[in-house]
Amino acid sequence: MAYVAEPIHQSLKARGVDCGKLLTVRYDEFADGEFKAFIPESIRNTHVYFIHSFYPDINKGIWELLQVNDALRRADADSVSNVLPYFANARQDRKKPREPITAALLANLLAFQGVRRLFALDLHADQIQGFFPGPFDNLFGEKIFLPYFLAKHPEAKDIVAIAADVGGGKRVRAFARNAAEAIGLPEPIPFGIIDKDRVSANEVEGMAYGTGPSVEGKHVWISEDMIDTGGTALKAGKMLFDKGAATVTLMATHPIFSAKLDKVTGISAAEDKFAQSGMKVIVTETLPRDPLYYERNKTWLTHLPIDMLFADAIHQSTLVRGSVSGVSKARKTK
């Protein structure tokens, strides 16, 4: 996560925050796959913000996080805060028959380790914040996407905002209202919600645009918190094009793109499907990617930085009477 940590560190220093050196955790691995984390310098009596990504192996990433937190506490850090732009296992957030609530399990493990504070971006469900007994700051990707949208559509003419499922309704309503407010419109941008029938993880059986205005001839902007296999977004995009949308743009905070070879179509990955879909996709940099990755996919994929949003949040958390919630206070859903 150096691509995020380094600009955050520079921004905090520029604001006069005494943030010391930026350290990089080292991982040593044994022949059998066992690994251990190592902190390269003393951090005794300091307040540590560990910026971590679970990508590309979520299960290994969780174990790395737990090891580093343990090492920091044993090295006598005054406090440890975890900056986790993409919070792992966030889709496992509620009780289902004979299934774990893994988002709660992870939050409980971090609390047990004595972690003081958590930061994340666009949690899959707001209630995950309640799984952690300390401050858990859920920043809003809208703060990153909205300036980009306004640069493309300064008057928001012929725009319809769409949530790809009912769960994203709150997010798209906030976006529609705040975009209109930023432009000075008296009413929210028209918005709608797609209904879908999910039969299992990563498998959507049916989809219908049941609630919202006509999209014929409109520039449609879909709001999602993540792209995993991309199945939902791709089906939504095709349906909207079929209904006459002029353009379809997808805003997704977490660009996982995990789809493998499709044995039916022969298309090799989620990226290939999006490249052929006619959609434009805007994502944030919550997952580390090689710069060449974005260069290869630049015809349809745009990435936006997250470092300044997290720098603002971390800075506010260091201030007496600082307001981290104020960093994302633009969201209005009523």
UniProtKB/TrEMBL annotation:
InterPro entries noted in UniProt? PRib_PP_synth_CS (IPR000842), Pribosyltran_N (IPR029099), PRTase-like (IPR029057), PRTase_dom (IPR000836), Rib-P_diPkinase (IPR005946)
Name one process (GO BP) from the record.
Answer: 5-phosphoribose 1-diphosphate biosynthetic process
State the organism's lineage. Answer: Bacteria, Candidatus Lloydiibacteriota
Q: Which domain of life is it from?
A: Bacteria
Q: Which organism is it from?
A: Candidatus Lloydbacteria bacterium RIFCSPHIGHO2_01_FULL_49_22
Q: Which PROSITE patterns match?
A: PRPP_SYNTHASE
Which Enzyme Commission numbers does its entry carry? 2.7.6.1
Does the record carry Kinase as a key word?
A: yes
Q: Mind telling me which Pfam families this protein's record contains? A: Pribosyl_synth, Pribosyltran_N
Under which name does UniProt file this protein? ribose-phosphate diphosphokinase
